[in-house]
Amino acid sequence: MFALSKRWRGLLGTLLATGTIAGFAAVAAAPAAHATFPGSNGPVVYVNFGDSSLHVVDPTTGVDSLICTSSACGGVVVDHLGVTADGRTVAFANTTGIATVPITGGGFTQVTTAPCGSCDVNPNFTPDGSTIVFERSSTLSRVAATGGAVSSIFGAPPGDVFGNQVSPDGSQVAFIDETSCCHLATIPYNGGAGGLETVRSNGNVFDDMLSWSPDGTKIAVRDTVDCAAIAFVPATASNAVPTCFPNSVSSDYDPQWSPDGTKIVVGDTGNHMGVLNANGIGRTDFSNPTSFDSEFWAVQATTTTTTAPGPTTTTTTPPPPCSGTLTGTAFKGSNPKPQKALAGVIVAAGSASSSTNGAGAYSITVPCGTVTKTATGPATKTRVCHFGSKSGPTSVTVTVTNGSVDIENLFCKKK
User: Fold this and answer.
1) How does pLDDT run across 28-39, given as a tens digit for each residue?
2) Which of 14, 122, 146, 288 could pair covalently with 80 via S-S, beta carbons 3.0-4.6 A apart?
């Protein structure tokens, strides 16, 4: 059952166990020192397993934006994601191997090519962003973030590694060992001494995502035998029973700590997003997004500026919002000639709209995602506007990616 837990968690039953609150005050109070992702909490990046697209979502409001569709990013594989420590670059698996894309969207960069398609999975960055650690055919591997030769990491069992993540200080790699399914283990990033891993938990950990706390002292896991679902193991433990989060429920999966260490994001009932307080008390469940999977909580992007001889200052600079443009020209009837341009047509897309000018042109900037366009006026009693051609639809749904420009003309013919 463990080997199927990640892929079939929506179908398999889970066991419910009670947890204790002991030790949770220490989790909430821990400082974010030497963390891979320290700083202010930024967006949560995730894979929509319904259409295998990449998204970011605001974990306080639930507002969702598309990074790229599956096809635009080379056939996204529903598997774990990684984000650089500056909060700007996402690593993901596609049908070719491991790739990266800006968190704001745009063109992707292919980093690895695996001979069997999606055999390269579960990428995450080292703290300096120079290297991506991932699994090739379930063997712990690494490659320069710019691409190049792939090497295995000595000390992890070949063919039996799942869900790896580099520690906040870059010295260790945690992973699920599926040899005798399943337990949490760690090895030094530069290779385990004598080829031996250190077993951190008992054998009840699911082959699900895991996450280091930003202070590097704890590792969040999924354990539905000892706990309801989400738990943590001290990073220095040996064969420990995980400590349960009392605010977790049996349907929670894919735990990921927030950059400030105060919260944990999970997938929850109905494949929505849930945010647990890391002190074990309270949680927030969102109705959106749906098909939420393989998430990673990124830091808020920052910019460092030095003005000689003045001090160095760091300011929080959110990445530009993901958006695209909808544009085109409206014409009277079916003839797309300049003299047939029609002014005053109102084109609406979600909450945004634009009226065609004297040349019949419209332009609307809208957030990334799926949006439906409609058109009305100016002579609604005598004309009806069709998208694309005189016999086209009166409304049309388009997918907007970052920087995309969708050009579609309107033909407003008499009724």
Assistant:
1) 333 222 234 667
2) 122
Query: Sorting pLDDT into bands at 50, 70 and 90, what band is 400?
Result: confident
Looking at residue 29, what is its pLDDT?
31
* DSSP assignment letter at 240: B
> Phi and psi (nearest 5°) for 169?
-95, 0
- At 9, is the pLDDT very low, low, confident or very high (cuts 50, 70, 90)? very low
Give the CA diameter of the chain.
Answer: 83
Q: Interior CA angle at 89 toward 270 and 72, to 5°?
A: 70
HSE on the CB side for 345, CA within 13 Å? Answer: 33
pLDDT tens sequence across 235-278 = 998 999 999 999 999 999 999 999 989 999 999 988 899 999 99
DSSP single-letter state for residue 60: T
Give the residue from 128, 39, 41 showing the smallest Cα distance to 89.
128
Of residues 400, 395, 351, the one with CA closest to residue 376:
395
Is the separation of the CB atoms in 142 and 166 below 8 Å? Answer: no
Pick from 188, 219, 181, 185: which is nearest to 203 by CA?
A: 181
Pairwise CA distance, residues 147 & 280, whole Å: 40
Q: How far apart are CA 212 and CA 219, in angstroms?
A: 4
**What is the rounded average pLDDT of the residues 186-198?**
75
* Cβ partners under 8 Å of residue 20, min gap 6: 243, 244, 246
**In the prediction, which pLDDT does 43 show?**
93
Question: Which tokens hold the place of 402?
Answer: 């970052």
Dihedral sign for Cα 65, 69, 73, 79, please. Answer: positive
The HSE-up count of residue 46 (CA atoms within 13 Å, CB side) is: 33
Among residues 295, 271, 239, the alpha carbon closest in space to that of 92 is found at 295
Q: Which pair of tokens denotes residue 110?
A: 């292919």
Phi, psi at 8, each rounded to 5°: -120, 25
Q: What percent of the chain clears pLDDT 70, i.e. is strictly above it?
A: 82
Q: Counting runs of H as helices and runs of E as strands, what totals does the chain give?
A: 2, 35
